[in-house]
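Input set for joint prediction.
Command: fold jointly, output tokens.
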Amino acid sequence: MIWELWRTSCVEWLFRIGAQCGLVVWLHWFAKNLGSGKTHEQHVIQGLMIMMLAMTCLFSMTWLNHLDNSRKGFSFRLGFTRPVSTVKLVVVPMMFVTASAVICFLVPAALLGWLWGSSIHLLSLSTGIACLVTCFVASAWAPTTILGRWVGMAIVAMGFLAGMSVFHVQRSDSEPFFLAIGQPGYFEFAWYHYVACSIAAILAVFVTISGVERQRHGEAWRLDMPWTAVLTKLGKRFDTLVSPRQQFASKFRAQCWYEMRRFGYIVLLLGVLAPFFPLFFSILATWVEPNWQGTPVAWILALAICPFVYQLVGAEGSLGLRRKQGATYLSPFDATRAAQNGQLIATKLFIIAACAAAGWLWMGVTAGLYSTLAGKWADWGRIGEVLPNVMENVPGRWRVAAIPTAILVYASSSSASLALGLWLALYPRRIMCGFVVLALHVPLVFWDARQDWALQGLWTAYGYLLAAAILGGGLYIIWKAVSSGYLGSRLFGGACCLWLVYVSTTVAVYVEFVPLNLFPPVVIFLGMSSLLVPLAALALAPLALAAHRHA
Amino acid sequence: MHIEISLQDGVPIYRQIVSQVKYLIASGQLEAGKELPPIRTLAEQLLITPNTVVKAYDELQAEGLVHKRRGAGTYVAESKSPLARREQRNILTRRADALLAEARQLNFTFDEVLDLLKKRQAALNKAISQERNHVGKCG
Amino acid sequence: MSENVVEVRGLSRQFGKTMALDEVSLDVRPGLVHGLVGANGAGKSTLMKHLLGLLKPKQGSVRVFGLDPVKHPVSVLERIGYLSEERDLPEWMRVDELMRYTRAYHSSWDQPYAEHLLDTFGLDIAKKVKQLSKGMRAQAGLIAAVAHRPELLLLDEPSTGLDAVVRRDILNAIIRTVAEDGRTAIFSSHLLDEVEQMSDHVFMIDQGKLVLQGSLDDIKEGHQLLSVRFFTERDELPSLEGMLSAQQCGNHWRIVCNGANGQVRESLRRLGGEVTHARNATLQEIFVARVGRNRLAVSEE
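tokens >
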């Protein structure tokens, strides 16, 4: 069994460890070049590093793959018919996952400690991570329904946060959390910390074993509470509500309904629940400090970030790829739809945008509601004074042009995310290598900055190369998408109109606000070629979909 | 119309249909003027491609045993063509061959077979006349 | 329609090191049922996927209704009804939703016919796909494929893993499609009995190559099964021209040979053999002779 697990995950393991070590080295260089010597800053960065490492280890692919929503409960069901005891069947993979997560953390953390010359409490952190991973795996494997799984994971997450808060309060440092974790002595565990972690881990193992034992013999672990019957009935009612009564008036509407039912509702659900975060934060902050005036900031931040979050979630959900035996592919049901690639992509983008817009509006409404109910309008007042002045300076024609520009930018960024997701499924290694190559350039930039830009020629060459690549590549992408019929003429025409508005607006902005003579020609060239990017990005997604659909 | 096809002997299906329909016509089970099942119905019954049925019906039509009425189906031909008589003779010939072969296997001489046939014919005549008397009495 | 429904020319496809299709060229004429036979992994599914545009031809060309299915997915797929091997349907969809969704994409949808089929099969329209059994799933997928009266019906291994009732439903659907003027059906199967009963035209694929094609009757008449008894016991037979396979059964040999059996008979007589029985070979026997392990290395006819 270990061999099975090893085979399926070793490459990803090595990749992960390598990537994280690389990240550590990179960050070390980065920090050294920024402003060395400041212990305080170093601690912050160190702390952040530890957190990041811990987080990434938790989400190791080995068991994330098992989180596939189509599979409920224990994922090694094949083992049920083998002459293996349930205890062994559960403990072995669990230990494997935990051990791999811990090692994924230990190696880069040790490297970090060695580079920084500071001591990191590897043992305590490893114990904590091991405990947390075990609990997460337990919550994923023991329950038999999807809802149960997510409830379990939420419980574990809350338990972890509670534990961390208690731990932090115990440390009784007056420093805020993120600065504190960088301190050398922070993660020193006392004996009872180790005991608590061990107890939690052992409990998790027991819960999993009992849950899997039930699954093995066909019993489900269901909470037969009075409300489950009600929930099921509500679910059925919801189903009849969202299913169409008559036939669809057009292909577009049919496809919209399909995409909405498939993933749109998740984005909508996220949109409905998202205002909870700024709301919670505002309430907490007001409770801690009654004169807190940061409400508008919190809400504006939320309003600014949420469209992108919805976009990402929507792009991920709209891919419609299935996973089977390790390979990701487009289902024949979707691939044999009598529609052009461009039309399918347009529908996906439309649903993403519509759900994101709905979520964004709801966020705004919640902001208004909260501000009214909590009497926070005074804080908004200051922003209310600044905004009209800013708006007055913007001519009317640009205010009008802002809308199609925003639509184009949003659509093209969604399209690019879709394309990235689709291509990542096809060529994961190539794309990751590309990213690594790009990332390696960043320390080079910083290093060169200290050498007084000795590599000026290289950067200029890169600039011209990039501009040429954008122009050439963009034109090629557009040509390929249109000539292969992936992007229909009507859609392309519409996109072109939006793009023309965008170009004229951007050029006008450049001309009016940007002093062109201050910039070297390469930057101007780059700026001009980057005008093609939105249009090319729109054409990317149909191409990526075609790569899947017509393998 | 009862038709069975078998894939065992490598005989093309359309030919099996043709010979079975010929038999049905010759033995009187398919009377003149009766309609043969529509192409799709027979195909669905036998689970064969409709084009095979089309082929079979075409061959039957070529041999004059059936005729197609435009859009209204296929019907058994009216006239008692010499082909029908020939087919009937073929049937009897086959039966006779089978009887003779079996008799030989069981070591009966030809005279014994003839004797047997005469006895059975007498019995059959008696049964038919008894039947007629019975019918006559009951009116 | 006198044009071919499907035209494939020189199609080759490689997956890694294996040659899934090797210079396959074929024509599919309208109004007939075409059976695609081959062993597992011979290339049947690959060929079907090319017809749907699910695979782009790297070498060679594919034309369906005279169009390239990759370049014109709308025109081609609108007129095709497809039932995939895995009966791939979204798990969360209900049966009636599936019908309504599919209906939106095909203007030739016949709602009374769809309802009649739903009735006949006894499918509960309120059930979700994930609650359906394998047979019911095949039925639902079949209705979605035939209810819009497609010009071309493509079925990939339609009978695999299904009970006799559902199998009959599927074959009836093929019959009904073809019985209506001009409609064509292509189905791939490794149940040779079914193919023999249901096909007008057969394509036999082995390891990516098209080893045999033609009307079923021609193929069957072109292959003979001879039962041969030799005066002296023989353990081995030399490979004769026209002989496709030879198998020893007790004291006689079963030999499958192609059309020119006069030659084979003569050669066998010269070797001291007597043909005790001869008949047309069944499709199964032809398949095993051409594709199975006992086949002899003969040149293509």
